[in-house]
Amino acid sequence: MKILLVEPDYYTRYPPLGLMKLASYHRSHGNQVKLVRGTNNNLHFKPDEIVITSLFTYAWKPVHEAIEYYHSLFPEAMINVGGIYASILPDNIKSSYPFVNVYVGLHDEAERYSPAYDILTDVEKWKDWDSIIVFTSRGCIRSCPFCIVPEMEGAIRSIPSDVWNFIYPGHKKIILWDNNFLASPDWKEAINNLQETGLKIDFNQGLDARLIDEEKASMLANLRMPMLRMAYDLVGEKKAVINAVNLLEKYGIKRRNILFYTLYNFYDDTQSFGDTPYTFLARVKDILELGCVSYPMRFEPLDSLKKNQFVSPLWTAKQLESIAKARRVIGYGGAFPPYEGLIKKFKNAKDFTDAFSLYPEVK
Ligand code: B12
Ligand code: SF4
Question: CB 3.0-4.6 Å disulfide test: which of 23, 182, 235, 253 passes with 116?
Protein backbone atom coordinates (compact mmCIF):
# COMPACT_ATOMS: atom_id res chain seq x y z
CA MET A 1 0.00 0.00 0.00
CA LYS A 2 1.06 3.58 -0.62
CA ILE A 3 0.49 5.93 2.30
CA LEU A 4 0.66 9.71 2.07
CA LEU A 5 1.52 11.36 5.38
CA VAL A 6 0.25 14.93 5.56
CA GLU A 7 1.41 17.63 7.94
CA PRO A 8 -1.10 20.49 7.53
CA ASP A 9 0.35 23.93 6.90
CA TYR A 10 0.12 25.36 10.44
CA TYR A 11 2.83 27.27 12.28
CA THR A 12 5.24 24.97 14.10
CA ARG A 13 8.93 24.93 14.95
CA TYR A 14 9.04 21.16 15.23
CA PRO A 15 8.68 18.37 12.67
CA PRO A 16 5.62 16.07 12.88
CA LEU A 17 6.76 13.47 15.39
CA GLY A 18 3.48 11.53 15.29
CA LEU A 19 3.75 11.08 11.51
CA MET A 20 7.41 10.08 11.80
CA LYS A 21 6.45 7.25 14.19
CA LEU A 22 3.52 6.27 11.97
CA ALA A 23 5.93 6.17 9.00
CA SER A 24 8.10 3.56 10.77
CA TYR A 25 5.01 1.61 11.82
CA HIS A 26 3.61 1.50 8.26
CA ARG A 27 6.98 0.60 6.75
CA SER A 28 7.25 -2.34 9.15
CA HIS A 29 4.00 -3.59 7.57
CA GLY A 30 5.52 -3.41 4.10
CA ASN A 31 3.88 -0.13 3.08
CA GLN A 32 5.49 2.72 1.17
CA VAL A 33 5.25 6.19 2.75
CA LYS A 34 5.75 9.79 1.64
CA LEU A 35 5.60 12.94 3.75
CA VAL A 36 4.16 16.26 2.52
CA ARG A 37 3.52 19.55 4.26
CA GLY A 38 0.40 21.52 3.36
CA THR A 39 -1.21 21.10 -0.03
CA ASN A 40 1.04 19.88 -2.81
CA ASN A 41 0.04 18.73 -6.28
CA ASN A 42 3.51 17.72 -7.43
CA LEU A 43 3.63 14.42 -5.63
CA HIS A 44 4.45 11.70 -8.17
CA PHE A 45 2.76 9.39 -5.66
CA LYS A 46 -0.78 7.99 -5.89
CA PRO A 47 -1.77 7.01 -2.34
CA ASP A 48 -4.18 4.28 -1.28
CA GLU A 49 -4.42 5.87 2.15
CA ILE A 50 -3.96 9.42 3.42
CA VAL A 51 -2.85 10.00 7.02
CA ILE A 52 -3.32 13.58 8.24
CA THR A 53 -2.05 14.75 11.61
CA SER A 54 -3.20 17.76 13.64
CA LEU A 55 -1.83 19.99 16.38
CA PHE A 56 -3.39 22.88 18.32
CA THR A 57 -7.19 23.11 18.21
CA TYR A 58 -6.92 26.75 17.11
CA ALA A 59 -4.88 25.55 14.11
CA TRP A 60 -7.89 23.60 12.76
CA LYS A 61 -8.20 25.45 9.44
CA PRO A 62 -5.10 24.02 7.72
CA VAL A 63 -6.28 20.53 8.79
CA HIS A 64 -9.65 21.05 7.09
CA GLU A 65 -7.91 22.49 4.03
CA ALA A 66 -5.71 19.40 3.81
CA ILE A 67 -8.72 17.06 4.09
CA GLU A 68 -10.59 18.90 1.31
CA TYR A 69 -7.57 19.22 -0.93
CA TYR A 70 -6.40 15.59 -0.78
CA HIS A 71 -9.93 14.25 -0.96
CA SER A 72 -10.49 16.11 -4.22
CA LEU A 73 -7.08 15.04 -5.56
CA PHE A 74 -7.47 11.36 -4.57
CA PRO A 75 -11.23 10.69 -4.13
CA GLU A 76 -10.63 6.91 -3.93
CA ALA A 77 -8.12 7.04 -1.08
CA MET A 78 -9.12 6.39 2.52
CA ILE A 79 -8.48 9.42 4.78
CA ASN A 80 -7.49 9.05 8.45
CA VAL A 81 -7.03 12.08 10.69
CA GLY A 82 -5.44 11.98 14.17
CA GLY A 83 -3.30 14.06 16.52
CA ILE A 84 -4.18 16.68 19.14
CA TYR A 85 -7.01 18.66 17.48
CA ALA A 86 -8.62 15.43 16.22
CA SER A 87 -8.42 13.97 19.73
CA ILE A 88 -9.84 17.01 21.54
CA LEU A 89 -12.58 17.95 19.05
CA PRO A 90 -13.26 14.83 16.92
CA ASP A 91 -16.86 15.87 16.19
CA ASN A 92 -15.68 19.08 14.55
CA ILE A 93 -14.07 16.95 11.85
CA LYS A 94 -16.68 14.18 11.70
CA SER A 95 -19.58 16.59 11.25
CA SER A 96 -17.92 18.41 8.33
CA TYR A 97 -16.33 15.37 6.64
CA PRO A 98 -18.31 12.17 7.26
CA PHE A 99 -16.03 10.28 4.82
CA VAL A 100 -13.00 10.76 7.13
CA ASN A 101 -11.93 8.32 9.90
CA VAL A 102 -11.09 10.33 12.98
CA TYR A 103 -8.59 8.75 15.36
CA VAL A 104 -8.65 9.80 19.03
CA GLY A 105 -5.58 9.52 21.31
CA LEU A 106 -2.22 7.87 20.90
CA HIS A 107 -1.50 5.13 18.36
CA ASP A 108 -0.24 2.53 20.82
CA GLU A 109 1.57 0.44 18.24
CA ALA A 110 3.27 3.39 16.50
CA GLU A 111 4.42 4.58 19.94
CA ARG A 112 6.84 1.64 20.04
CA TYR A 113 8.66 2.67 16.85
CA SER A 114 11.59 5.09 16.47
CA PRO A 115 10.57 8.11 14.41
CA ALA A 116 11.61 7.88 10.73
CA TYR A 117 13.78 11.01 10.49
CA ASP A 118 14.69 10.19 6.89
CA ILE A 119 11.15 11.13 5.68
CA LEU A 120 11.91 14.75 6.65
CA THR A 121 14.18 15.12 3.62
CA ASP A 122 11.01 15.13 1.46
CA VAL A 123 9.96 18.47 2.98
CA GLU A 124 11.88 21.71 2.42
CA LYS A 125 11.04 23.10 5.90
CA TRP A 126 12.49 20.05 7.68
CA LYS A 127 15.36 18.90 5.49
CA ASP A 128 18.04 20.37 7.80
CA TRP A 129 16.41 19.30 11.09
CA ASP A 130 19.19 18.12 13.44
CA SER A 131 17.65 17.29 16.82
CA ILE A 132 16.11 14.17 18.27
CA ILE A 133 12.64 14.55 19.79
CA VAL A 134 11.63 11.91 22.26
CA PHE A 135 8.98 11.02 24.80
CA THR A 136 10.58 8.71 27.39
CA SER A 137 7.19 8.59 29.11
CA ARG A 138 3.56 9.44 28.35
CA GLY A 139 0.71 10.43 30.63
CA CYS A 140 0.98 12.26 33.94
CA ILE A 141 0.46 11.77 37.68
CA ARG A 142 -1.41 15.07 38.04
CA SER A 143 -4.70 16.38 36.71
CA CYS A 144 -4.27 20.13 36.20
CA PRO A 145 -7.57 21.55 34.93
CA PHE A 146 -5.88 23.43 32.06
CA CYS A 147 -4.36 20.32 30.50
CA ILE A 148 -5.67 17.55 28.21
CA VAL A 149 -2.84 15.11 28.94
CA PRO A 150 -4.54 13.14 31.76
CA GLU A 151 -7.59 12.57 29.54
CA MET A 152 -5.73 11.97 26.29
CA GLU A 153 -2.81 9.89 27.57
CA GLY A 154 -3.95 8.57 30.97
CA ALA A 155 -1.70 7.48 33.83
CA ILE A 156 2.03 7.95 33.63
CA ARG A 157 4.06 5.13 32.10
CA SER A 158 7.54 4.96 30.66
CA ILE A 159 8.10 4.25 26.98
CA PRO A 160 10.66 1.49 27.03
CA SER A 161 13.25 3.19 24.88
CA ASP A 162 16.96 3.40 25.01
CA VAL A 163 17.55 6.98 23.85
CA TRP A 164 20.45 5.73 21.72
CA ASN A 165 17.97 3.88 19.47
CA PHE A 166 16.28 7.15 18.66
CA ILE A 167 19.39 9.08 17.67
CA TYR A 168 19.85 9.60 13.97
CA PRO A 169 23.36 10.34 12.61
CA GLY A 170 24.09 14.07 12.83
CA HIS A 171 21.71 14.84 15.68
CA LYS A 172 23.12 17.54 17.96
CA LYS A 173 20.50 17.93 20.65
CA ILE A 174 17.83 15.91 22.46
CA ILE A 175 14.44 17.54 22.99
CA LEU A 176 12.23 15.74 25.51
CA TRP A 177 8.47 16.19 25.24
CA ASP A 178 7.65 14.15 28.38
CA ASN A 179 4.73 15.78 30.15
CA ASN A 180 6.18 15.07 33.58
CA PHE A 181 9.61 13.48 33.16
CA LEU A 182 10.46 13.22 36.86
CA ALA A 183 7.23 11.34 37.61
CA SER A 184 8.15 8.54 35.20
CA PRO A 185 8.94 5.25 36.94
CA ASP A 186 12.17 5.08 34.90
CA TRP A 187 13.39 8.68 35.27
CA LYS A 188 16.73 7.61 36.76
CA GLU A 189 17.60 5.24 33.96
CA ALA A 190 16.49 7.87 31.44
CA ILE A 191 18.79 10.53 32.94
CA ASN A 192 21.73 8.13 32.86
CA ASN A 193 20.89 7.37 29.25
CA LEU A 194 20.71 11.07 28.35
CA GLN A 195 23.99 11.81 30.10
CA GLU A 196 25.78 9.05 28.20
CA THR A 197 24.89 10.60 24.85
CA GLY A 198 26.87 13.75 25.73
CA LEU A 199 24.34 15.75 23.68
CA LYS A 200 22.59 18.95 24.79
CA ILE A 201 19.33 18.23 26.59
CA ASP A 202 16.11 20.26 26.61
CA PHE A 203 13.25 19.22 28.89
CA ASN A 204 10.98 21.23 26.66
CA GLN A 205 7.73 20.73 28.59
CA GLY A 206 9.27 21.71 31.90
CA LEU A 207 10.13 19.64 34.97
CA ASP A 208 7.80 19.41 37.95
CA ALA A 209 9.33 21.59 40.72
CA ARG A 210 7.32 19.68 43.35
CA LEU A 211 9.28 16.49 42.55
CA ILE A 212 12.82 17.89 42.78
CA ASP A 213 14.80 16.40 45.65
CA GLU A 214 18.53 16.03 46.45
CA GLU A 215 18.98 12.94 44.25
CA LYS A 216 17.14 14.37 41.24
CA ALA A 217 18.88 17.75 41.51
CA SER A 218 22.30 16.11 41.65
CA MET A 219 21.58 13.90 38.64
CA LEU A 220 20.06 16.73 36.57
CA ALA A 221 23.15 18.83 37.24
CA ASN A 222 25.24 16.22 35.37
CA LEU A 223 23.41 16.86 32.09
CA ARG A 224 24.46 19.34 29.39
CA MET A 225 21.47 21.60 29.83
CA PRO A 226 21.73 25.25 28.76
CA MET A 227 18.30 26.02 30.28
CA LEU A 228 16.24 24.09 32.82
CA ARG A 229 12.50 24.73 32.52
CA MET A 230 9.88 24.33 35.24
CA ALA A 231 6.40 25.78 35.81
CA TYR A 232 5.06 28.07 38.52
CA ASP A 233 1.34 28.02 37.75
CA LEU A 234 -0.29 28.73 41.11
CA VAL A 235 0.84 30.79 44.13
CA GLY A 236 0.40 27.70 46.32
CA GLU A 237 3.47 26.20 44.63
CA LYS A 238 5.82 28.87 46.04
CA LYS A 239 7.45 26.67 48.70
CA ALA A 240 8.16 23.89 46.18
CA VAL A 241 9.56 26.41 43.69
CA ILE A 242 11.99 27.90 46.24
CA ASN A 243 13.05 24.46 47.41
CA ALA A 244 13.68 23.27 43.82
CA VAL A 245 15.77 26.34 42.92
CA ASN A 246 17.87 26.03 46.08
CA LEU A 247 18.53 22.33 45.48
CA LEU A 248 19.40 22.81 41.82
CA GLU A 249 21.79 25.63 42.71
CA LYS A 250 23.38 23.50 45.43
CA TYR A 251 24.37 20.96 42.75
CA GLY A 252 25.71 23.56 40.33
CA ILE A 253 22.82 24.75 38.14
CA LYS A 254 22.91 28.54 37.81
CA ARG A 255 19.75 30.36 38.84
CA ARG A 256 19.71 32.46 35.68
CA ASN A 257 19.63 29.21 33.68
CA ILE A 258 16.35 28.20 35.33
CA LEU A 259 13.18 29.32 33.53
CA PHE A 260 9.65 29.14 34.91
CA TYR A 261 6.63 28.99 32.61
CA THR A 262 4.26 31.40 34.36
CA LEU A 263 0.61 30.72 33.51
CA TYR A 264 -1.88 33.59 33.47
CA ASN A 265 -5.48 34.22 32.42
CA PHE A 266 -6.49 30.73 33.60
CA TYR A 267 -10.09 30.32 34.71
CA ASP A 268 -11.99 27.18 35.61
CA ASP A 269 -15.71 27.98 35.48
CA THR A 270 -16.73 24.67 37.07
CA GLN A 271 -15.00 25.83 40.25
CA SER A 272 -15.16 29.61 39.68
CA PHE A 273 -11.41 29.65 40.22
CA GLY A 274 -8.55 31.32 38.40
CA ASP A 275 -5.42 33.42 38.73
CA THR A 276 -5.62 37.22 38.84
CA PRO A 277 -3.30 40.04 37.73
CA TYR A 278 -2.32 40.33 41.39
CA THR A 279 -1.34 36.66 41.83
CA PHE A 280 0.42 36.66 38.44
CA LEU A 281 2.57 39.64 39.45
CA ALA A 282 3.35 37.94 42.79
CA ARG A 283 4.67 34.86 40.92
CA VAL A 284 6.73 36.92 38.46
CA LYS A 285 8.26 38.80 41.40
CA ASP A 286 9.04 35.56 43.25
CA ILE A 287 10.80 34.14 40.18
CA LEU A 288 12.87 37.23 39.45
CA GLU A 289 13.81 37.69 43.08
CA LEU A 290 15.01 34.07 43.10
CA GLY A 291 17.34 35.08 40.25
CA CYS A 292 15.47 32.96 37.67
CA VAL A 293 13.68 33.75 34.39
CA SER A 294 9.89 34.10 34.10
CA TYR A 295 8.26 33.04 30.80
CA PRO A 296 4.62 34.23 30.86
CA MET A 297 2.23 31.75 29.26
CA ARG A 298 -1.26 32.91 28.38
CA PHE A 299 -3.91 30.28 29.11
CA GLU A 300 -5.68 28.91 26.07
CA PRO A 301 -8.89 26.89 26.65
CA LEU A 302 -8.64 23.28 25.55
CA ASP A 303 -11.40 23.69 22.95
CA SER A 304 -10.13 27.04 21.65
CA LEU A 305 -10.75 27.57 17.93
CA LYS A 306 -9.06 30.98 17.81
CA LYS A 307 -5.88 31.86 19.67
CA ASN A 308 -5.79 34.67 22.25
CA GLN A 309 -9.56 35.26 22.24
CA PHE A 310 -10.32 33.99 25.71
CA VAL A 311 -10.31 36.58 28.52
CA SER A 312 -10.79 35.24 32.04
CA PRO A 313 -13.53 36.98 34.05
CA LEU A 314 -10.76 37.89 36.52
CA TRP A 315 -8.73 39.73 33.85
CA THR A 316 -9.40 42.49 31.32
CA ALA A 317 -8.27 42.46 27.69
CA LYS A 318 -6.21 45.58 28.43
CA GLN A 319 -4.33 43.86 31.25
CA LEU A 320 -3.56 40.87 29.02
CA GLU A 321 -2.34 43.18 26.28
CA SER A 322 -0.06 45.00 28.73
CA ILE A 323 1.75 41.70 29.47
CA ALA A 324 2.17 40.96 25.76
CA LYS A 325 3.58 44.45 25.24
CA ALA A 326 5.91 44.29 28.24
CA ARG A 327 7.27 40.94 27.00
CA ARG A 328 8.13 42.56 23.67
CA VAL A 329 9.50 45.84 25.00
CA ILE A 330 11.20 45.16 28.33
CA GLY A 331 11.50 41.38 28.13
CA TYR A 332 14.04 39.28 26.26
CA GLY A 333 12.82 36.62 23.82
CA GLY A 334 9.33 36.93 25.35
CA ALA A 335 10.66 36.23 28.85
CA PHE A 336 11.47 38.35 31.89
CA PRO A 337 15.08 37.62 32.89
CA PRO A 338 16.33 38.60 36.36
CA TYR A 339 17.76 41.94 35.20
CA GLU A 340 18.32 44.37 38.06
CA GLY A 341 16.12 47.02 36.40
CA LEU A 342 13.25 44.60 35.95
CA ILE A 343 13.47 43.25 39.51
CA LYS A 344 13.37 46.83 40.81
CA LYS A 345 10.49 47.80 38.53
CA PHE A 346 8.32 44.87 39.62
CA LYS A 347 9.34 45.15 43.30
CA ASN A 348 8.59 48.88 43.57
CA ALA A 349 5.36 48.75 41.55
CA LYS A 350 2.25 49.94 43.41
CA ASP A 351 0.11 47.36 41.62
CA PHE A 352 -0.22 45.29 38.44
CA THR A 353 -0.93 48.30 36.21
CA ASP A 354 2.14 50.11 37.51
CA ALA A 355 4.31 46.99 37.10
CA PHE A 356 3.35 46.43 33.47
CA SER A 357 3.06 50.01 32.27
CA LEU A 358 5.98 51.06 30.12
CA TYR A 359 7.85 54.17 31.15
CA PRO A 360 10.15 55.71 28.58
CA GLU A 361 13.20 55.38 30.86
CA VAL A 362 12.85 51.56 31.18
CA LYS A 363 15.07 49.77 28.68
C1 B12 B 1 5.54 19.79 22.20
C2 B12 B 1 4.38 20.65 22.62
C3 B12 B 1 4.48 22.03 22.41
C4 B12 B 1 5.62 22.69 21.64
C5 B12 B 1 5.23 22.88 20.16
C6 B12 B 1 4.79 21.58 19.48
C7 B12 B 1 4.82 21.62 17.99
N8 B12 B 1 4.72 20.46 17.37
O9 B12 B 1 4.93 22.64 17.37
C10 B12 B 1 5.69 24.09 22.33
C11 B12 B 1 6.59 23.96 23.55
C12 B12 B 1 6.18 25.26 21.49
C13 B12 B 1 4.24 24.20 22.79
C14 B12 B 1 3.64 25.41 23.01
C15 B12 B 1 2.31 25.55 23.40
N16 B12 B 1 1.48 24.57 23.74
CO17 B12 B 1 1.96 22.68 23.64
N18 B12 B 1 2.27 20.86 23.66
C19 B12 B 1 3.23 20.08 23.22
C20 B12 B 1 2.96 18.58 23.48
C21 B12 B 1 3.84 18.06 24.60
C22 B12 B 1 3.17 17.68 22.24
C23 B12 B 1 2.50 18.23 20.97
C24 B12 B 1 3.00 17.59 19.69
O25 B12 B 1 3.60 18.23 18.85
N26 B12 B 1 2.74 16.35 19.49
C27 B12 B 1 3.04 15.70 18.24
C28 B12 B 1 1.95 14.75 18.08
C29 B12 B 1 0.83 14.99 17.18
O30 B12 B 1 2.59 13.53 18.06
P31 B12 B 1 2.11 12.42 19.00
O32 B12 B 1 1.16 12.91 20.01
O33 B12 B 1 3.32 11.67 19.47
O34 B12 B 1 1.30 11.58 17.92
C35 B12 B 1 0.63 10.44 18.36
C36 B12 B 1 -0.88 10.59 18.34
O37 B12 B 1 -1.31 11.93 18.43
C38 B12 B 1 -1.31 9.85 17.10
N39 B12 B 1 -1.44 10.57 15.85
C40 B12 B 1 -0.95 11.78 15.47
N41 B12 B 1 -1.35 12.06 14.21
C42 B12 B 1 -2.08 11.01 13.76
C43 B12 B 1 -2.76 10.77 12.56
C44 B12 B 1 -3.48 9.57 12.42
C45 B12 B 1 -4.22 9.31 11.15
C46 B12 B 1 -3.49 8.61 13.45
C47 B12 B 1 -4.23 7.32 13.30
C48 B12 B 1 -2.83 8.86 14.67
C49 B12 B 1 -2.15 10.05 14.81
O50 B12 B 1 -0.34 8.86 16.90
C51 B12 B 1 0.94 9.34 17.35
C52 B12 B 1 1.71 8.21 17.98
O53 B12 B 1 1.09 7.78 19.16
C54 B12 B 1 1.43 18.59 23.88
C55 B12 B 1 1.04 17.67 25.03
C56 B12 B 1 1.03 16.23 24.60
N57 B12 B 1 1.51 15.37 25.46
O58 B12 B 1 0.60 15.90 23.50
C59 B12 B 1 1.19 20.06 24.28
C60 B12 B 1 -0.12 20.78 23.84
C61 B12 B 1 -0.35 20.46 22.38
N62 B12 B 1 0.18 22.20 24.00
C63 B12 B 1 -0.82 22.87 24.38
C64 B12 B 1 -0.80 24.28 24.58
C65 B12 B 1 -2.04 24.91 25.20
C66 B12 B 1 0.30 25.06 24.21
C67 B12 B 1 0.38 26.60 24.26
C68 B12 B 1 -0.83 27.28 23.65
C69 B12 B 1 0.62 27.02 25.70
C70 B12 B 1 0.56 28.51 25.89
N71 B12 B 1 -0.50 28.94 26.52
O72 B12 B 1 1.42 29.23 25.50
C73 B12 B 1 1.67 26.90 23.46
C74 B12 B 1 1.36 27.43 22.05
C75 B12 B 1 2.57 27.78 21.24
C76 B12 B 1 2.27 28.27 19.85
N77 B12 B 1 3.22 28.18 18.99
O78 B12 B 1 1.20 28.73 19.51
C79 B12 B 1 -2.05 22.01 24.56
C80 B12 B 1 -2.98 22.16 23.34
C81 B12 B 1 -4.41 22.42 23.67
C82 B12 B 1 -5.14 22.86 22.43
N83 B12 B 1 -6.24 23.54 22.67
O84 B12 B 1 -4.79 22.59 21.31
C85 B12 B 1 -1.42 20.62 24.73
C86 B12 B 1 -2.29 19.42 24.29
C87 B12 B 1 -1.01 20.43 26.22
C88 B12 B 1 -2.14 20.73 27.16
N89 B12 B 1 -2.06 21.82 27.88
O90 B12 B 1 -3.11 20.02 27.23
N91 B12 B 1 3.65 23.01 22.90
S1 SF4 C 1 1.69 18.43 35.46
FE2 SF4 C 1 1.80 19.18 33.31
S3 SF4 C 1 1.26 17.41 32.02
FE4 SF4 C 1 0.65 16.91 34.13
S5 SF4 C 1 -1.53 17.46 34.20
FE6 SF4 C 1 -0.35 19.24 34.97
S7 SF4 C 1 0.03 20.52 33.15
FE8 SF4 C 1 -0.64 18.49 32.40
Answer: 23
